[in-house]
Model the fold of this input.
Amino acid sequence: MTPNQQSAMTSRFTLDAEYIQGGQGLWLLTHWRAANNSTALLILPPFAEEMNCCRRVFATLATMLVTTDTAATSGKGIDCFLPDFYGTGDSEGDFHNISLQQWRQDVLSFLPQLAGYQQVHVLGCRFGAALLLDWLSDIRQILPFGQVMLWQPQLDARRFWQQLQRLQQFGEPGGQADASAANTATIPAETLYVAGYEIPLSLQSEALALNSQLPADVSQLYWFESTLSGQLSPASLKLQQNHPELLMQALNGQPYWLSQEPVDNQALLDATVAVLRGFAAKSSPTSKAKSVTPAITRSIATVITANITAPQIIPLQLCGKQSLGIYLAAASDLLIVMVNGGAQTKAGSHRMQQQLAWHWQQAGFASLRFDFPGFGDAEGSAGDFIDHARYLTALPAELQRVFGKRRPVVLFGLCDGATAALLASHVLQPDALLLLNPWCRLQQNHARTMLKFYYLQRLVSKEFWQKLLTGRLKLTTSIASLQRFLQASAAEHHFDQQTTEKLAEPDSKPHGLPALSPDQAVLQAIERWQSMSVPVHLTLSSADLTAAECAELLKRADLQHLREQADCLEIAGANHTLSGEGHLAVLMQASVNFLRRLAA
Done:
């Protein structure tokens, strides 16, 4: 087995992945597989950032399906396959080069490798549902077809494109409409720039050309909607009237496709599992499951670092939880370990980490990125940045296992990923740090920052005075909130001396380390930062509250030296994840300059 096809195995199932050569370049296929399953599910993901938001839901569904339950399914599970289309997720390519026709060709070229299964179901989510219906007749000709599942389908291509245009025009700060004149990158006129994604205008004609009509026979098609009310939308009710035989169901649930943070979608998962396992039981109640191993694609790499262009899959065990690392080799022995912040996946928001890793590789620097347990594709339950620091303490042993030697390591972290990296730094022993908008929230510091960057700005805001003069502002509520921040800001605050205990060595459980409150963890991270003498590159976004809190904290007399000793970069107009036009390019160039000085 080659490194790009290695697996992280447990007694229940295997999480693995492989890079497949497509028409434009390599695209990633993630698998959840067991040894005795004869049925599979192919998942077609949604578009752009919705894909990242849905990642955890797909991984949870796959884990539920692939794990056999003898009592319920007579020992049968369902293997799951999730592609990252070229230019999306952790696949190669740039988003502005995506092509729906190329996605179709790549997937259809791979599908014969699943023909060994007795049954293959297909699930399309959001825009992935439109792709599924367009590709349906071709898929049926290749695979032993089963059920069709549609999650929150987004089938109106015209409306889909209009939503993208509105997001560009009225979207979040940092979008194309208010990009800074100081940006170093220019976006071609033939693209939309939406929340960090450069979307080619050619996508409009491709999307409008999709045949996303329901098939004539909908007896094996399930339409699931998650709504806060548990009721179908008016448009869906109208569709159901025209197709009374369509199996359409509304489930109580939050809009999981809009939030990277975990949300309650158990009803959707349970309903989907019940349909698929129920179908398997009806179709072959007594047949013996056979072991299925799809054909292995052509090897990309035979040993770690043998090919410095192709990404390689590395199985990781973090305190007993399996995850997949993506390693990009380079000429330099320096290794950048990328630490996720919050609920981010290894691709990062708007593919930030994927794009950084590719850029660093082109500059000669290797990188490794992965999902923390409970997020993205990894096993386990979601935790906070303190749990992530505990998982990081298991990383040195994994790096030793993979590379067979100690390599110089640079830790990159965004937000509480940077704080987690600092918390675990005494175990990781990094040679340098790349910190982006570190999480430094402490009660007093947060209050002071809110007063300075929120309330002060509100007083000079036209919108504030309009609301006040028209009676739309609840003045008593605002005054009460202001008083709370004034009191918190004036409160005396010192470093808690009881937070100086060391993080213990990891054991089989990620919770075997001393319990820390978020404030204690931030204080301990700052203390670890003070105790290190390695080079630090600190990047702060000027339009981000988290960055402002970090800047305020580092103004303290006893902490000023941290900023003075670091290479500091402030990106004008940038938001928290640098999703504005050209902002990520600024970090790319500055980080490469920093890394080159390290390697010199």
Observations:
- The chain has three domains: 14-155+217-283, 312-442+493-599, 444-490.
